[in-house]
């Protein structure tokens, strides 16, 4: 992969120009994968330090990305593309996993999931500021309505109704901001590189940091290799970081960052259901009511321009 022919120009055209319906379907699949990320992370922190989770969540998929790119004979991105890939990589490969792991040491996955409900709105904000998308007032109305429903649910959910914000809440909000920025940068590069290549090159861009950090972590850390912690770490490294982002970036590139990003409004409800199933959190009828309302608001956001 060398020479002028191996460099992708910014004007390159990929097959990500399909119908917005295809983008919505890809985005929905990505959200389904992402919805188990917080429960998997809660499993991982039972046996691994948050720093170790961050390092191995970047290193393992980064090595896998090298193999994927080699098999795809993927051209090397140009210098301008590398900047976006590096910034997006720091957000999705360092900022989000580290901050969310720290958050999950003090708050449960259900509460973290509701805070993650801010992600579609933050993604739309970053898309407006950086991606030059201009959603309509009705779009923003649907977005705000969804956020109000999610925040109201947070305040009424048993065990998570405190009005004050703790360190875990703030860390989760910062993680959500990192994820939103990474989505916008990744989707922009996916229009040029394609979803899988965009995510793979993002992970490769982190290898100069993740490889030495992985070596140091392996020498100084004393992890607890339980079944739950191991499964959680592997899910984060493979499903959340590779498979989910493949579909998600491709969906954002095809259907529009702000519009497809609204599909993620249903992710908190899915995560709460996973939390109830695997962590014995209470799941009452209100969860399903909120899920239906949020899903309807997502549908409205998809239909307005």
UniProtKB/TrEMBL annotation:
- UniProt membrane topology term: Multi-pass membrane protein
Q: Subcellular location, in the record's words?
A: Membrane
Swiss-Prot/TrEMBL keywords: Membrane, Transmembrane, Transmembrane helix
Domain of life of the source: Bacteria
Membrane-spanning regions, if any? 24-45, 51-70, 82-104, 110-131, 138-155, 170-187, 199-220, 232-251
Tell me which residues make up the EamA domain. Answer: 25-151, 167-297
Please tell me where this protein is predominantly located. Answer: membrane
Q: Does the keyword rRNA-binding apply?
A: no
What protein family does this chain belong to?
A: Belongs to the EamA transporter family.
Task: Give the protein name, as stated in the record.
Answer: Permease of the drug/metabolite transporter (DMT) superfamily
Organism of derivation? Streptoalloteichus tenebrarius (strain ATCC 17920 / DSM 40477 / JCM 4838 / CBS 697.72 / NBRC 16177 / NCIMB 11028 / NRRL B-12390 / A12253. 1 / ISP 5477)
């Amino acid at each position: 992969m060398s020479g002028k022919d191996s460099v992708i120009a910014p004007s390159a055209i990929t097959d990500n120009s399909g119908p917005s319906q295809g983008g919505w379907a890809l985005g929905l699949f990505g959200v389904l994968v992402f919805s188990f990320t917080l429960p998997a992370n809660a499993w991982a922190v039972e046996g691994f330090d948050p720093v170790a989770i961050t390092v191995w969540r970047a290193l393992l998929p980064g090595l896998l990305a090298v193999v994927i790119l080699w098999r795809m004979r993927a051209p090397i991105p140009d210098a301008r593309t590398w900047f976006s890939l590096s910034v997006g990589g720091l957000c999705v490969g360092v900022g989000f996993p580290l901050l969310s792991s720290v958050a999950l040491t003090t708050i449960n996955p259900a509460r973290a999931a509701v805070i993650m409900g801010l992600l579609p709105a933050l993604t739309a904000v970053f898309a407006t500021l950086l991606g030059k998308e201009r959603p309509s007032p009705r779009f923003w109305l649907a977005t705000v309505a969804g956020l109000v429903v999610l925040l109201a649910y947070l305040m009424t959910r048993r065990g998570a109704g405190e009005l004050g914000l703790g360190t875990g809440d703030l860390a989760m909000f910062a993680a959500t901001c990192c994820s939103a920025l990474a989505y916008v940068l990744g989707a922009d590069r996916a229009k040029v590189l394609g979803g899988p290549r965009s995510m793979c090159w993002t992970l490769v861009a982190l290898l100069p940091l993740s490889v030495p950090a992985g070596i140091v972590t392996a020498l100084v850390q004393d992890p607890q290799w339980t079944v739950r912690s191991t499964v959680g770490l592997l899910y984060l490294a493979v499903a959340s970081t590779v498979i989910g982002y493949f579909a998600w970036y491709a969906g954002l590139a095809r259907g529009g960052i702000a519009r497809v990003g609204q599909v993620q409004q249903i992710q908190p409800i899915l995560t709460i259901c996973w939390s109830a199933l695997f962590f014995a959190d209470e799941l009452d009828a209100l969860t399903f009511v909120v899920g239906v309302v949020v899903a309807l608001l997502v549908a409205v956001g998809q239909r307005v321009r």
